[in-house]
Amino acid sequence: MTTLVKNQKIYDEFLDFIAQGTTPKSVTKFQFSEATKERIEDLVYLAKSGELTLEDKKELDELLFVDRLITMIKAKAHQYIQSQSE
Length: 86
Prior knowledge:
The chain is an all-alpha fold.
């Protein structure tokens, strides 16, 4: 499997979640699949051990970008939920 396919699958997890319809509360609870979490852990381990290939580094960088983006989306959802309860 190429990095592009792996990354596309990871992007697709969140895109599918959004496309199915969400609420602010469901957004705050979004989690990557166990397979994705394991892949991230593997890449972090490889990075710490100095065994990360250039392809792996690119994949990890993209995963971390998506993770940061999702974190920001979750923060906005939390803000929305709080503003609705005031």
